[in-house]
Specification:
Structural class: mainly beta
Distance between the termini: 34 Å
Strand order of the largest sheet: 1-2-3
Helix content: under 10%
Strand content: 25-35%
Number of strands: 3
Order of helices and strands: EEEH
CATH topology of one domain: N-terminal domain of TfIIb
Largest sheet: 3 strands, antiparallel
Shape: elongated
Number of helices: 1
CATH architecture of one domain: Single Sheet
Amino acid sequence: MAAPICITCNLERSLISIEPVKNRHDMLQYECPRCRNIFSLVTQRMPLELDDLVVHEPALQAASR
């Protein structure tokens, strides 16, 4: 997903925070690098798939088999 554009400065905003909110949603906050205006966007959290997990602890790898 592309970052939103500041309507005042016409610049791409930078993602500055992601906070969990209710019902499996996250609030993403974007800031304009020029005017410092904050844009908040609530999105549905993507489901976590076990195939995407990478385990680095040998004890956890053995337990998950």
